[in-house]
């Protein structure tokens, strides 16, 4: 049985396989979907609401012919209120479904769930912990857009202290050759020391920089993140931080022609709408890629011999 | 790409086609449904809850073989809280689904959504704006029940100031020949001047009347609406207005034998239960028609050549 | 048309048939599900949240090829707020779905719903009233685990005053031969007099006992229930009651080798995790059986001639 708990569980070879599978899934989705997971049921168990992530997983399951049982807000509605442990909830729900997608507010929840589940568990975010499918779709998007993840220079911009995606992505990028990272953040939310320590150990070159304009000129990927209002002591301080780094036409004009702008979304003003029409604005394509990555993961966790054969056949069709 | 944003977008010829398609859909539903939209996904994106409307759309989609991703209360749960614009939400969700059904509390939301969506958008109510599928099912029900919408006399009764359905229906009826409308409302919620102006421009005969008993004797359609408690300054005033027009056995006894009673539902006392068993009580059949109209609209927005061919074939079978 | 409103509507012969059907359903589920209810729609109408029960019904419907429209919290979201009666809601929703699963906080709600519904209604719990599918899965589990429900000694332990499942199960057990019941509860939540009166009328032997250790040695079934915090005047009193009867390794050591432990779940400390690995801990298998019982009931309410034929064929395959 195969669980998806952390982006770190994938080595570079597995990432390559996954991204190839995601490409096959894109082809599948564009051609009317598949019956690969016909008869299978996915439980979307969201202890905190995230309509976007839930929809992405549910869409992925349905594109493969599967069905979905779903709760928008398990914390409010479920047996949790009656004092039931996560472990008991998972034991029961794993007898209703063939796979569980779990979103939870506590770090480590998905790992605890996997220990007792009778079916595969996919981590759809565990508090300040991990959100592996987001990291995987980020990497997949870079590869699709630029052709390779080796030899790139990426800037990560915004709230680098609390931004879970930024940490995961930094760790994952160390698997690739000759990656350079520029961290650009307001003073009160820098990249944590432990991430820098890790990158140094791995021999990844990184810089902490202040001027987005200069950085924009030299990078292949500009990875923007939202400044999270709820982190700041006052509205005034939030606005100062939030307004500091904004991608507008000026920034765009400085960027390389082949470079791309990514964002895990939702955004809240840090990328102006005037940027959306530029072909380098890749953030909506990035969201779309999330469905293909999740289709690939679902097929991987739930697929059987028939699934493998179908994947192989499709791979040949696509050439 | 075809959006359904307003009832007004349909001319009389298109309405005829739609109602014919809805009849085919009724036949389809009664015979085990169809695979017309097999492999398609509808997103039900409800920023305010409306279980009834949501269920009607979801049922319509499923009767045609499609699948559904759904949120009961997007305003509370979604990225909207994090400051995301409706436009961004729609851009992302339109990469998860093949069609979006949008319920929103702001006038014009569906039109804004359609501008950025990569897939068709159906307006399922935008605040005080429009609720086109309700108007379409109202008209379809009149045609089914009476055989024609031309040459009818219809009374609209209840809260005519705030009742969105009454305004839309008035506008739509001007497309038909020789329609007469009697508006019957408590003094504090009359039909707005702008609706009257429109009807005068279009040459539609209308009356403002006070006595439901007299009106009941002469109309072909009695369209009741709920007095909305939340509109009134005090509970006492509400009760005075709410109690003024009630359909009971007395009113029924005065009505023509071929006449029908409609109501967009939910009702709250303005039609007594004793009326339900009378064959002229058409309001539950009206709700059922909502599924057929929505099946027709979904097929129209999502169908392809195969769908057209199947519709044509079914049309011949039905004679 | 067949409704499931009360466990009492099933006589012993019907229970035997139902349990046979549930076994066939278990076989079906283990072999990729069925298309028996293809094209059918179930409405899960939950006026109070119960993720577990809802998931179990939805999973059952999907395992049989059916589709689901669902609301997690109809009381908060639906037309009920606008003053609509349950009867009107049911009339409308029964035109959207082929079957309604109703959870409601008022006793008798399911029976009221069945009176006006155009489609079968299954009671998924009506307040302090009944929860028939829970009782049926309890009985089914005993039969599966022990081979028979006749000649058993069962202990019911915990909150016996408010525990709805314990009352229903007591009534249902009177249908079987030579059943003995031991009631074990804290002083402030004993089994009600009316249940005892009923058992006396039916000639069922029962005891009220105090010492779980002694009882554990002699029973075939230990049916634990949760002490419900909200019932007690103070936290201290709750803890006293809650802590009084706990199944741990000591209790387990005293139990017969063939005996089983059941629990309707969720639990909140009255069975220690150390018990879970023992083969006599049957409560998670019991939850799984809920899906098979619900599949059987759905097939019974919605199935046609083809369904009957398929059931018969499967029955032969299974021997």
From TrEMBL, chains A, B, C:
Gene Ontology molecular function terms on file: amino acid binding; aspartate carbamoyltransferase activity
HAMAP family membership: Asp_carb_tr
Residues that coordinate or bind L-aspartate: 82, 164, 226
Protein EC: 2.1.3.2
Subunit structure, interactors included: Heterododecamer (2C3:3R2) of six catalytic PyrB chains organized as two trimers (C3), and six regulatory PyrI chains organized as three dimers (R2).
Reaction it catalyzes: carbamoyl phosphate + L-aspartate = N-carbamoyl-L-aspartate + phosphate + H(+)
Keyword Zinc (UniProt): no
Organism: Tumebacillus algifaecis
Annotated carbamoyl phosphate binding sites: 52-53, 103, 131, 134, 265-266
Protein name in the entry: Aspartate carbamoyltransferase
General function of this protein: Catalyzes the condensation of carbamoyl phosphate and aspartate to form carbamoyl aspartate and inorganic phosphate, the committed step in the de novo pyrimidine nucleotide biosynthesis pathway.
Gene Ontology terms describing biological process: 'de novo' pyrimidine nucleobase biosynthetic process; 'de novo' UMP biosynthetic process; amino acid metabolic process
Signal peptide boundaries: none
Pathway the protein takes part in: Pyrimidine metabolism; UMP biosynthesis via de novo pathway; (S)-dihydroorotate from bicarbonate: step 2/3
PANTHER family (alphabetical): ASPARTATE CARBAMOYLTRANSFERASE, ORNITHINE CARBAMOYLTRANSFERASE, MITOCHONDRIAL
Residue ranges constituting the Aspartate/ornithine carbamoyltransferase carbamoyl-P binding domain according to the UniProt record: 3-143
Pfam families hit by this protein: OTCace, OTCace_N
Gene3D superfamilies: Aspartate/ornithine carbamoyltransferase
The entry's keywords: Pyrimidine biosynthesis, Transferase
Protein family: Belongs to the aspartate/ornithine carbamoyltransferase superfamily. ATCase family.
Domain annotation Aspartate/ornithine carbamoyltransferase Asp/Orn-binding: ranges: 151-301
């Amino acid at each position: 049985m195969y669980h998806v708990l952390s982006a770190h569980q994938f080595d570079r070879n597995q990432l390559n396989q996954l991204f190839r599978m995601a490409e096959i899934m894109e082809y599948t989705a564009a051609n009317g979907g598949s019956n690969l997971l016909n008869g299978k049921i996915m439980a979307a168990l969201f202890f905190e609401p995230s309509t976007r992530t839930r929809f992405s997983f549910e869409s992925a399951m349905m594109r493969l012919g599967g069905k979905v049982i779903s709760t928008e807000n398990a914390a409010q509605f479920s047996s949790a209120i009656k004092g039931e442990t996560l472990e008991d909830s998972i034991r029961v729900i794993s007898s209703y479904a063939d796979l569980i997608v779990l979103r939870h507010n506590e770090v480590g929840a998905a790992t605890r769930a996997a220990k007792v589940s009778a079916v595969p568990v996919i981590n759809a975010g565990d508090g300040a912990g991990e959100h592996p499918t987001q990291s995987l779709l980020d990497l997949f998007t870079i590869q699709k857009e630029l052709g390779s993840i080796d030899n790139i220079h990426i800037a990560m911009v915004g709230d680098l202290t609390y931004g879970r995606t930024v940490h995961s992505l930094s760790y994952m990028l160390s698997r690739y050759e000759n990656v350079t990272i520029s961290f650009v953040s307001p003073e009160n939310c820098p990249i944590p020391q432990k991430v820098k320590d890790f990158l140094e150990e791995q021999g990844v070159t990184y810089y902490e920089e202040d001027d987005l304009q200069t950085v924009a000129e030299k990078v292949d990927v500009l990875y923007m993140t939202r400044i999270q209002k709820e982190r700041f002591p006052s509205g005034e301080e939030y606005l100062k931080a939030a307004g500091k780094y904004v991608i507008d036409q000026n920034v765009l004009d400085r960027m390389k022609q082949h470079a791309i702008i990514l964002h895990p979304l939702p955004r809240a003003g840090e990328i102006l709408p005037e940027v959306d029409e530029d072909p380098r604005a890749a953030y909506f394509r990035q969201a779309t890629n999330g469905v293909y990555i999740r289709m690939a993961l679902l097929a991987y966790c739930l697929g059987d011999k028939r699934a493998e054969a179908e994947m192989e056949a499709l791979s040949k069709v696509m050439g």
